Structures are given as structure tokens and as C-alpha cells.
């Protein structure tokens, strides 16, 4: 096999009873109006974890009604920012008290590494809540000196009821990347988690209630994109939609928003991010970065460095090193602390990735390592590296969302920039070089929303993140995320007999 595989072992992690499986609307867990449920599946073995309430248009209507009442008549938008902050801080404390159980839920649902969830993802979302709690009492407009006999000031007001549609690859992180700034702004909301990963979102709804977030402010409707997601996108009483997911679905959300009440949308969509490695790079470090960029979270991350361009002077040595490292990459049960890559999220994604690998072979790519499923149970795929690929090949053009690297050679900086930009996407890019001039030139030349120099996945609460081109628009994280949930209102009054303007 192309990598080490660790089969399921007796886990030292206690798997908790699944506590929350119903919709969370207006402060209560309730069945869907139809009574329908769907199964959420453990990607380690394909077995059913739990049956989850399947929300539909009518359930979304109820959730929106609750959110609208909470916004128009409830206390949340009218609280002092310091009081919203206090409640958000308590919410974060409750997350800290339940780190292990929340990490287990994301590992069960999404195949994410438990060790990473416990150490990074779940503490990270508590940190995100605290970051925006700190901003809740610092929302203010400006006083304007106008050029006429008028005085004006601006107000920053919450945009209203927000629909959040979140993806399955980072169920907790994306929940709070959207919910935290919206709460700080004073909005109310309806959250639709991905149908593959509903468990942690429902647990967070429970913790929000315990923290003191008023009923109706945070509602969670589990269900499918074609029904619950579509209902949110087209709802006449939702004031904004924030979505992370595929570019194709993003287009449908824009259409629905335009043809309903012309609500604004924020879209963080697909990517096909390039990693450019120059001749002066440390090959050991570059190989580690390249593997991290494509194998982290089993490649199920929209900024994955799936196109790796290596300058010709170190190309052969780099290829040898990265293949050598890939073959020792440990794939297996995400609860095993020695494992670095768990199963793909579900059977559909698993089969899609394997199909892309077959495309790569048919179109003439050379498979250096990997390319096969691992074991006969669960959705495990070997770390896969192709070389001898061209820009017009399917595996170079399409977002695969899996552990598949396309490795290519370049000669000059100009060629590298041109090829890096030869994509419809523009989400992220990486540069590995010791030359500051090269780093500056390339980072300013690549059309992408975030550029990482001599690092990768350099995310932070205070650094805005989003795309160019078909990777969408709008930003998560940083103050940019807070401001997208606020509207600017100008208030103007005349000035009479003023000695100056």
C-alpha cells in the first residue's frame, strides 16, 4: 500500500450517548413537522450513528418565525453590547467544559482526527466566540462633517435574521465562524448544518440555551440542502444568507436570493489552490508543507494545496522526498492518536475521489504513490500523488476535495504566476522561498483571497478569509466578518446659523 494503515483499535475514548437529534427551534428541541428522520453515518465503518430529525420548508418557516420575533421584539439586538459579550463568554466557557464530547461528535460524524479536534478545533471555536464577544461592545459608527449645512452620523445596525448554511468538513469551526460575529452584531439566525455532520451543531444549540442566549436567537434546522437549504435561501423573511460550500450550490443560493427578497449573500466556495516551491526552498520543510497542504483533514478542505508547482532546480529531489514521506503517512481510525488521516466523510465523497483518481490515470498522469482505497470497511483512501499532469487535465482543473496532489514543474517566476492563476478559483495560495523579493512579487500577483508565505493554513480569528473569482465573496473571521452582519445607516440633520461647517 502507498501509506501505513492502522485498522480500528480498541478505543481509549469513551463514545458518549448521542443526546440531541431533534430540530432546535425557539429554544426547544422538537421533531420535524413531518416526523421524518435521516441517518447520520460513521465513516469509519458505514454504520448508523443516529437518526436525526429531517427539517423541511415548513420547519424552516417555524425557525424563521422564531428568529424574526426574537429580532423584532426580543431582547438580543437591544442588549448593550457588553451584555451580549457576557453571554457569549459563558457560551465559550460551556464549550470548554465539553471539549472531549464535542470532539468525539465531529470525529464520529466527519471522520476528523479526535486528537486534533480536542486540541485545536473545539478550543478554537471557544476562542472565536471570545474574540467576537470582545467586539460586541465596540460597534459604532462615525460622526461626519458634511460640506453643506448639515450634520450627519452613521449607525451600525444588525442586518436582521441570518441564514447560515455550513459545510461538513469543519462542522464546529464553520458553525462559529458564522454564528459568533452574527451574535456579536445582534442578529438572530437559523443554522442549517450539513446533513452529513449534524451532531455537534445540535449540541451547540443546547449549550447556547444554557448560556442564556434568548429563545429564537439561535435556531438549528437539520436536513438536506435541496429542501431545508433551499428554503433558507429563498425565504422572504431572511435578511441575509452566509454559505460555505461548493461553487455550484453557491450559484443556486445567489439565484434564490435574487429572485426572493434580494437578500445579500456571503459565499465562501471552492478552491484549487496552488503551492509554489522555489529553488531556494529547504526541501525537507517544503515537502512537509506540501503534504500538510493536501493531506490535512484528508484533503477535505477548500484551501487544500492540490496543485503543487516546484521549480526545476529542485524538482527531482523534491519528488523523491515528498513520495517518501507520503508512503509513511498513517491512515486509520481517527480516534487513534498515531493516525494522521481518517476516513473521507461519506460514501459519496469517497467514490467521487476514487473516480477522480481514475480520471487522472486515464488522462495520462503518472501515479507516484497511492491511488487506492484502504481496507474493505469504511471510507479510507491512500495519500495520492500524480505527476506528468497538465493544466487541462480534470484532476488539475476540478476541486477534488480529497488526498490527491497534482505535482508539476516550472522554470521561471513568470511561468509560476501564470500557471497559478490559470484556474477559475481564487481562494488561497502558498509560496515557499527564502527570497523576500520573490515572495512579495508572487504574493501580489496571484489572484487569491489569502496567500501563505513559508507556511500553510495560517488561519486566525483576526485574519479575514475568503475568495476571489469563483471562490466567492465576503469574508469570514476578522472584523470584516462582523461588519457583514451590520448595516450602515446615515442620520442627517440641518445646522442653522453655525459659525462654521
Overview of this protein structure:
- The structure is a single chain.
- This protein has 501 residues and is of the alpha/beta class.
- The relative contact order is 0.15.
- The longest helix is centred in the first third of the chain and has 20 residues, at 114-133.
- Helix 12 (394-397) links the parallel strand 19 and strand 20.
- Helix 5 crosses helix 15 and helix 9 crosses helix 10.
- The strands form eight sheets. A seven-stranded mixed beta sheet has the order 16-19-20-14-13-22-23, sandwiched between helices. The protein has a six-stranded mixed beta sheet with strand order 10-9-8-11-12-25, with helices on both faces.
- Helix content is 37%, strand content 22%.
- It has 15 helices and 26 strands.
Terminal CA distance reads: 77 Å
The counted number of beta strands is 26
Compute the CA-based radius of gyration. 24 Å
Helix proportion of residues, in percent? Answer: 25-40%
The total of helices stands at 15
Features:
501 residues; alpha/beta; 7-stranded mixed beta sheet; 6-stranded mixed beta sheet; 15 helices
